[in-house]
Amino acid sequence: MAVNLKRSSGGDSDKGKTSRRRMLGWLTGAGLVGSAGLSAVSNFVFIRPRATYGQPQRFSVGKPEDYPSGTRAVLASRGICIIREGARLAAISTTCTHLGCTVGAADTGFACPCHGSRFDQDGNVTGGPAPRPLPWFQVTLAPNGEIEVDKDIEITPGSYLTL
Q1: Contact at 8 Å (CB) between 97 and 112?
Q2: What pLDDT shows up at residue 163?
Q3: Domain ranges of the chain
Q4: How far is CA 36 from CA 15, 27, 43, 49, in A?
Q5: Which CATH architecture is the domain 58-162 placed in?
Q6: Taking burial as the number of CB atoms within 10 A of a residue's CB, which of 20, 22, 44, 135 is the most buried?
Q7: Residue from 103, 85, 95 nearest 139 by CA
Q8: 3-state DSSP: the chain helix, strand, coil percent, rounded to 5?
Q9: Please, are residues 149 and 138 in contact by the beta-carbon 8 Å criterion?
């Protein structure tokens, strides 16, 4: 008696089925296409410049009546100190000219907490390693009545906006 051990070639029962080899081929191809797409997108994101624009250098700081005479208001978020003396107004930088630390208002002017630079009320260096005085910025009165400071334009120290 001979036993027939031949496998069935699939006949009618295997017509709609996909072979394992073909399925692995499809999955491999899909993985390669997906990897290529992901690589192309990541290369594009890497090459595209990531410009991070800082705060605008020209900004409004409020109305003149917000700063009564004798005021020395430090606006830390903007890096300036608004000074009002009578009908005159000015803006002085609060960034130390030594290494860029933020200076704080002191009784005698400004003091840098990082390396000990000292500045008088007008921003002139009175001590420490700071190489030059604190810069003064242009102050204008906008048509809507608000004070605008332009940090792109440095002016001569002691120059005030007369209201």
Answers
A1: no
A2: 81
A3: 20-52, 58-162
A4: 33, 14, 10, 22
A5: 3-layer Sandwich (2.102)
A6: 135
A7: 85
A8: 20, 30, 45
A9: yes
